[in-house]
Amino acid sequence: AKIDTWRTTNGVAFNCKFTTAAVAGERELSKWSDLVRTYILLKGQSIQYTVVDNEALKAAQTHPEEYRDLIVRTGGYSAFFVELDKETQDSIIGRTEHQV
Hints:
This protein has 100 residues and is α+β, with helices and mostly antiparallel strands.
């Protein structure tokens, strides 16, 4: 059975990770805007985006001093990527990136 969550208060978050290329131009930003509008029209309540390339995350592992301000969303909270343990960093890097 499908649970009707549209009336759920703070119950469902839409977490997405996009590459920087997915929002790099007017066409891409327009598609992203359409995605957000559609989510809201479908009564979505919470959207949480991370826009970063895996290459940047890998570079942050190699040269953390150059990426001290890189913030990622993980496990329901935001954290500085370089302060996370390697296992968590690898998990974030391994997650799927989406392009629209």
